[in-house]
């Protein structure tokens, strides 16, 4: 996807954030990396992985309420086989929060035991919260802060809201370090950029929305062939491998999105498709599907 791939994702604040994250790693015992459960691979920043290195980490598959639950479980199995704890999370409702607290203590049990031997029982666990823009870090922190009176992290449905590192003290003995969302200089794989654009991690203002919606429709027609006909009441079942543009036109016509001369307003239809996918109205879908690691 050349229009996304060509964009250089290192504005000044992102370069500064990367340096600050590197400096602050020594202040924390654990990394909580939020990824989008619909695109776990594409939403994990390879630059951050290189910075984190051997620091203990928990992966939080956020927005799991919009992801295919079968695929989410397979991703959790895959992470487990790689030696990483992963938890399905919905930061808006709080589902998965208690599992995160338990997992954090389990991952750091040797460190906690060492503190207790030194008379430091009750020492708070310091956690750095990392993730790309719009993955839900602020919603996650606000859910943890609920009822603590410790303030709120800013939440907006736009990438790149948080611009500085901030500490929050939450209940149950945790201190969280919030960091701005960071993308990386260049998407070597254009599919990664495309998937990030589908989910809203890349600003829409720089994208070809019609082309993006067409590619999304083609992908969904392959992975979840019933979803588009069900949502938009268009008949695609008798035809296979329809180009995305033709599917988009059928959706626009079915929804009455017409302009002068009876032509379909494909730009309006594209915005509708992307908005409805991002809000979960098309169903629970995972665009990056994992092969099950279960041996059973």
UniProtKB/TrEMBL annotation:
Entry keyword annotation includes Cell inner membrane: no
InterPro entries listed in its UniProt record: GTP-bd, GTP-bd_ortho_bundle_sf, GTP-bd_ribosome_bgen, GTPase_MTG1, P-loop_NTPase
Subcellular location: Cytoplasm
Domain G intervals: 126-184
Keywords tagged on the record: Cytoplasm, GTP-binding, Nucleotide-binding
Keyword Cytoplasm: yes
Similarity field: Belongs to the TRAFAC class YlqF/YawG GTPase family. MTG1 subfamily.
NCBIfam families for this protein: GTPase_YlqF
Function according to Swiss-Prot or TrEMBL: Required for a late step of 50S ribosomal subunit assembly. Has GTPase activity.
Name used for this protein in its record: Ribosome biogenesis GTPase A
Protein source organism: Neglectibacter timonensis
Name of the encoding gene: ylqF
């Amino acid at each position: 996807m050349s229009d996304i791939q060509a964009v250089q994702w290192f504005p000044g604040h992102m370069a500064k954030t990367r340096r600050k994250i590197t400096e602050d790693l020594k202040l924390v015992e654990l990394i909580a990396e939020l990824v989008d459960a619909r695109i776990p691979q594409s939403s994990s920043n390879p630059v951050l992985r290189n910075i984190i290195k051997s620091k203990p980490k928990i992966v939080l598959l956020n927005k799991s309420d919009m992801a295919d639950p079968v695929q989410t479980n397979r991703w959790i199995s895959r992470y487990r086989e790689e030696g990483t704890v992963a938890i399905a999370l919905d930061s808006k409702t709080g589902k998965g929060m208690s599992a995160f607290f338990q997992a954090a203590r389990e991952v750091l049990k040797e460190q906690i035991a060492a503190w207790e031997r030194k008379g430091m029982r009750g020492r708070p666990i310091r956690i750095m919260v990392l993730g790309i823009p719009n993955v839900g870090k602020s919603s996650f922190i606000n859910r943890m802060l609920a009822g603590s009176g410790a303030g709120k992290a800013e939440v907006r449905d736009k990438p790149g809201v948080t611009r500085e590192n901030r500490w929050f003290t939450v209940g149950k003995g945790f201190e969280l370090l919030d960091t701005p969302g960071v993308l990386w200089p260049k998407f070597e794989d254009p599919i990664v950029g495309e998937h990030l654009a589908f989910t809203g991690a890349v600003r829409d203002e720089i994208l070809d929305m019609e082309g993006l919606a067409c590619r999304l429709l083609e992908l969904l027609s392959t992975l979840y062939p019933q979803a588009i006909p069900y949502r938009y009441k268009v008949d695609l079942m008798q035809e296979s491998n329809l180009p995305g543009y033709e599917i988009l036109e059928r959706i626009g016509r079915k929804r009455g999105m017409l302009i002068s001369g009876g032509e379909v307003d494909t730009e309006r239809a594209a915005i509708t498709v992307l908005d409805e996918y991002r809000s979960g109205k098309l169903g629970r879908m995972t665009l990056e599907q994992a092969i099950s690691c279960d041996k059973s």
